[in-house]
Each structure stands twice: as C-alpha cells, then as structure tokens.
Input
Amino acid sequence: MNSSQLLVLGGLLILLSIISLESRADERKEQQEKLDNNCQQAREVKIAPLREAVIKDCISEGKEEKYCQGFYKDYGERTGHRAALFMDLPECEKAFEHSRSDRNSS
Output
C-alpha cells in the first residue's frame, strides 16, 4: 500500500469510529428517555390521587376549582426547596442509575 492509500484507509477508520460513537450516544439517549418516561408514569400513578386530594381541600376552603387546579398542577414535582415526590420508585432509581453510569463512564 502506498502512503495515499494508507491516508484514505486511516480517514475511513476515523470516520467509522465517529459514526459508531454517535450511534451509541443516540441509543443511550433513547434508552434514557424511555427510562425517564417510565419513571414519570410510575410517579404520576402515585401523585395523581394526592394532587386530587389537595385540590379538593383547596376547593373546600372556598377557592375556585380553576384556581386550585392551577395552583396544584405541579404538585409532587420539585419546586422551591421541596424535593420531587416518589423519586425512590424502582423505575426512577433505574433511570437515575442509567444517567449516572453515563457520567461515570466518561
């Protein structure tokens, strides 16, 4: 092989490496999105009845339903100095571990 053929071959190998890395990154991102969605769905199952209860309490205090729904629409999420509820569910722990493993592999 002459030097120009080696250069072309080297360039192709670099290009293939870059494509492979991008493909793995895309797969990892898709997996993280799936895990995050599973976490959010599992949390919503737990949070929804609690949210409804605080909305009912709000309404029973004489406030309008629309106001109470708006005020508590993000109930259970991280707000101010409050942690998000139910982040300890298995689905959420799995999503967290997956995201953490990406940071640790860098």
